[in-house]
């Protein structure tokens, strides 16, 4: 019976040691990610992009040669939803009528 409990104790100790090493490795990896300036700069450049929509359609005219389409400009934005950004966006756009 003593060998059986000794065997269980060794297995449990080995599993615990492996889990502690894995957790230490994860903490080390996380601290490297957080402190890396290059990764922060890469994340900053990837967080914004410009969407360019090609204007490939032709114009449609009425019988008096007045354009029916393509006469208004539309802006589309993508903003990270924080209260500070919401105030800035609302200050920058015209109110809807």
Model description:
With 97 residues, this protein is an all-alpha fold. It has one domain. The chain has three helices and no strands. The protein starts with a helix and ends in a 5-residue tail after the last helix.
Q: Give the DSSP E fraction (strand runs of 2 or more residues).
A: under 5%
What pattern of helices and strands is seen along the backbone? HHH
How many β-strand runs? 0
Poorly predicted segments: none
Number of helices: 3
- What's the end-to-end separation, in Å? 85 Å
Q: Which overall shape is indicated by the principal axes computed on the Cα atoms?
A: elongated
In short:
With 97 residues, this protein is mostly helical.
Topology (SSEs and partners):
Blueprint: H1 2-35, H2 37-46, H3 83-92
Pick out its properties.
mainly alpha, 97 residues, elongated, 3 helices
